[in-house]
Every structure is written in C-alpha cells, then in structure tokens.
Amino acid sequence: MVKDIITYPTPPSVEYATDVRVFDDDLFTLIEDLKDTIKANQLDGLAAYQIGNYFNVVIIKQDDDFLELINPRVINPIGKVTTEETTSYFPNLSAKVPRYEKISVIYQDRDSNQHSLKADGSLSILLQRKIDYTFGSTFLNKLTKDEKKRFEKKLEFGSNVAIPESCPIVSYKDYLNKLSNIFLIVIALLLVGSFFISDETTLQEIWNYQKYISYATVINGFIYLVYGYYEGKRYSSCTSCQIGNLIGTLTISFIKLTVLMVLSFFLVT
After folding, report:
1. Minimal CA–CA distance to 131: which of 69, 203, 86?
2. Chain mean position to CA 35
3. pLDDT of residue 35
4. 40 and 130 inside one domain
5. Contacts (Cβ under 8 Å, ≥6 apart) of 68
6. CA distance 131 to 28
7. Cα separation of 127 and 58, whole Å?
8. Could you report the per-residue pLDDT of 170-183, keeping only the tens digit for each?
9. What pLDDT was estimated at residue 190?
C-alpha cells in the first residue's frame, strides 16, 4: 500500500527508529508498503521513519530489485566528500552536505540473518541519508554553519534559490554614495558663495572648510569601496555590487571632487 511521505514542516510522528526484534507479518507488510511508496513516487530509497513508522527499516531501489536493510548501522567510514543533496522531507530544496566517501553497513534481512556491504559513490550517500532518518535526523543536522543559514533561508522562502546571495533591496553603500554627493554639493555651494565675498580671511576660512570636506569625501569613498567589495563577495548575483561598478562610481565622484577643488584653489584662495 502506498503511504504518505512526511514532509517539512510536519514533524515526524516518531523521534527515532526502534530496532526490529520480531520478524513477522507486520514487518513484511511495512517492507512492501515502503516498496510501493518508492515506486509510486519514483524514489531511490525510503526509511520507515519517513512514513511515520518506528521500525528501523530502510529500503533501497536497485534497478528492478530492492535492497532490504533491517536494523542498519554504518561502520568503518572512510574519506570525506561534500555532495549536493535533495530529500523527500524537504521537497524541491537542495543543500551541500558533508558525507563519508565510503562506508560499510551491517544489517539484517527479513529472515533476521546478518549481512554486511561496502558502498561508495551515490549508493554510499543514499545509504547515509536514509540511515540518518533512523536516528531522527535529516541532512539539516549535517550542514556547516554557513550552509545551514543558506538552507534555512530556502525553507523560509520556499525556494531553492540561494536567497542570501540575492541582491539586497537597500544597501548601505547607497547611503555612502549619497553622503559623498552631499559633500560635493556643499563644496560647490561654498565655491559659489565665495564669489560674493571679498574679505581675505573669510575666503581662507571657506578654503579650509572645503579642504576638510574634501578629506571627508575621500575617506567616505574609501569606506564605500571596502563595503561595496564586501557586498560583492556576499551577494555574487548582484551586478550593482561588483567591483567594476564600484570603481566606476568612485572614479566619477573623485573627478567631480578634483574639478571643484582645482576651481576653488584658483578662485577662492
């Protein structure tokens, strides 16, 4: 019988799987239900935990046959690898999960006989993911700190797009750019105002103010470049955050500043 697969945000009805002690018709029915559910949903494998059953059972589809693992345990893990994984519990979402490259698994069959197998490649990853379920765990618990933050954003927005890498709607560098423009306007106003002043002392004070504001403009531009570079690294998909755009904007600002200060030097001092 095809069963419903539990998906996020519905919590599983059991915390972790219990080892099978009695190999009876209830167990065999569960195994057949898992196979039917795998075929109906075109899956590679399924743990009993994923349909809310407390038995420690994992079924893996292999071509036209099934591998039945009862009470599976991973032993002798070898190597490390990071894979892009999806799972039925988080439909249509993926994450980069650190895994063992090769594993050995001990398990029982439906007649309670003990077996072992060695797995690498995609089978190793699939077995690790399904056996994780028997301990009440999803790949969310395996993720690095940064990857977990990214995946939680995916859960929040229900999208597999890397949300943290999306271009920010409001950027602090925009405020820094506006501040530079304000500085330039003030310098220009002081320049225009100097045309109506003949007192040498006052003109010298205006020139000093312009110099101080120009220093502030340069410092603000440096902060703008550093912060913009940081955003460019964090939001790689944002074209306005890229270093070429930052340098272009900063260059235009410095050209305006240079023109204003040269004019002020000859007309104010």
Report:
1. 69
2. 33
3. 97
4. yes
5. 31, 57, 59, 109, 110
6. 19
7. 8
8. 567 888 889 999 99
9. 93
Residue partners of 156: CB distance under 8 A and separation at least 6: 163
Closest Cα to residue 182, out of 139, 143, 229, 221? 221
- Residue 57 CA to residue 254 CA, distance in Å, equals 68
Q: Nearest to residue 43, comparing CAs of 116, 126, 162, 157?
A: 126
Which tokens go with 112? 């309670």
pLDDT digits (tens, 9 = 90+) for 58-93: 999 998 899 999 999 999 999 999 999 998 889 889
- Kindly state whether residues 176 and 145 are assigned to the same domain: no
Query: Residue 237 belongs to what domain range?
Result: 172-267
DSSP helix/strand/coil, 51: helix
Phi, psi of 218 (to 5 degrees): -65, -45
106 and 205 share a domain? no
Q: pTM of the predicted model, to two decimals?
A: 0.60
